[in-house]
């Protein structure tokens, strides 16, 4: 059971990393801003004399976007691998789904805060709590109960 939960947690986290990578690869302004901040902080403090001169960030954000796109596909492939392993080692596919979803939502919130400076309002956390509660209700519903009810109806 523990390997199934571990793989499900990793799958959820990798799904969140893939989503963040997609956001980075499709939003050039953010990567360009990070590049410019990095050059100001760690690079030269060079002042350009001509208005038509470009900085390294004007072209460097393109390979960074491609790198994030590659990270997106890699994380998705590894995520599906871990999800398949989680389903194989878990006693219930519902338990795996609940664990992966919870891990993905929470990881997305933390990565959004860490990378993009996003904050989630209380209503977001209430909504996530309700979603988790619904998923837990689905998980707690025993598949044997449904099977016994189907057998009882068939016998009647």
Written overview of the protein:
- The protein has six helices and no strands.
- By secondary structure, it is mostly helical.
- The longest helix is centred in the middle third of the chain and has 33 residues, at 57-89.
- The radius of gyration is 23 Å and the shape is elongated.
- Residues 48-53 have low confidence and may be disordered.
Describe the protein's topology.
Elements: H1 2-26, H2 28-42, H3 57-89, H4 93-116, H5 122-140, H6 143-155
Structure annotation, total helices: 6
Major sheet description? none
Ends apart, CA distance between termini = 38 Å
Q: Roughly what is the average pLDDT, rounded to an integer?
A: 81
Q: Rg from C-alpha positions?
A: 23 Å
* Structure classification: mainly alpha
Roughly what fraction of the amino acids lie in strands? under 5%
As residue ranges, the low-confidence spans are 48-53
Described by the principal axes of the CA atoms, the overall outline is elongated
Strand segment count: 0
Order of helices and strands: HHHHHH
Query: How much helix is in the residues?
Result: over 70%
């Amino acid at each position: 059971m523990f390997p199934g939960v571990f793989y499900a947690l990793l799958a959820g986290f990798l799904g969140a990393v893939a989503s963040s990578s997609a956001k980075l690869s499709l939003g050039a302004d953010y990567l360009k801003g990070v590049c410019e901040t990095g050059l100001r902080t760690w690079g030269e403090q060079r002042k350009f004399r001509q208005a038509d001169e470009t900085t390294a960030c004007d072209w460097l954000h393109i390979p960074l976007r491609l790198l994030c796109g590659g990270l997106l596909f890699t994380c998705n492939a590894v995520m599906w691998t871990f999800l398949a392993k989680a389903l194989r080692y878990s006693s219930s596919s519902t338990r795996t789904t609940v664990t992966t979803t919870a891990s993905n939502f929470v990881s997305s919130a933390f990565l959004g805060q860490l990378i993009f400076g996003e904050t989630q309002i209380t209503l977001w956390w209430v909504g996530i709590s309700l979603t988790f509660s619904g998923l837990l209700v689905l998980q707690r519903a025993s598949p044997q109960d449904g099977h016994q009810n189907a057998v009882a109806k068939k016998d009647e």
